[in-house]
Write a structure and sequence with these properties.
26% of the residues are buried. By secondary structure, the protein is mostly helical. It is built from six helices and no strands. The protein starts with a helix and ends in a 34-residue tail after the last helix.
């Protein structure tokens, strides 16, 4: 099975993973063992096993999970950017300033550094980019586990390496026959 047939299930599972992870309130199910990430990769594994004409190995499931996690994180980023902009125009900076104001033992140098970062306005983009790369790593790792789980659940066919029946062993000779004669040496 080539990678072209792996792309369609990974796209479907990745889009499912990305959209469900980006939607407000629904995205909290990812707090339960990365539920949407595992669901997306298990769905991709199910579709891949169903389309495959040969048995799918766990290694293929892991590779499919990696691709699904990558696609899902990209879809998440594309869907969450507009949602992030609509819901958090200045929310993060205001929360950061309020948190700093509530810390009485914070050194003045640290307070000045954080306030200067907050006043620049680029900190939101930096936080988003760092969060994206963190999520990319986590989603890919968890999706690889989900792809392996999906293959283990849905692949019921035997692999091509092992025969389906044990080899037939010839029955032993009857006990009432005399032992075979030793071979004769023609040179003697």
């Amino acid at each position: 099975m080539n990678e072209n047939t792996m792309l369609k299930p990974a796209l479907i599972g990745g889009v499912l993973l990305g959209i469900l992870s980006a939607l407000p309130l629904i995205n909290y199910f990812n707090c339960i063992c990365c539920a949407w990430v595992i669901l997306g990769s298990v769905v991709a594994a199910r579709l891949y096993v169903k389309e495959s004409s040969t048995p799918v190995t766990l290694g293929r499931g892991v590779a499919l999970g990696l691709l699904t996690g990558l696609i899902g994180t990209l879809v998440f980023a594309l869907f969450s950017i507009p949602l992030f902009v609509m819901t958090n125009r200045t929310g993060i900076m205001e929360q950061l300033k309020q948190t700093i104001a509530q810390m009485p033992n914070l050194p003045p140098e640290t307070r000045d550094a954080v306030e200067s970062l907050a006043s620049q306005g680029n900190i939101t983009a930096v936080i988003y980019v760092i969060g994206f790369f963190f999520m990319l790593v986590v989603n890919c790792l968890v999706a690889m586990i989900g792809g392996a789980i999906g293959v283990a659940i849905f692949e019921k066919r035997k692999s091509g390496g092992a025969p389906s029946e044990p080899p037939q062993i010839p029955p032993p000779p009857p006990a009432d026959l005399p032992p075979p004669l030793p071979p004769t040496d023609p040179a003697a």
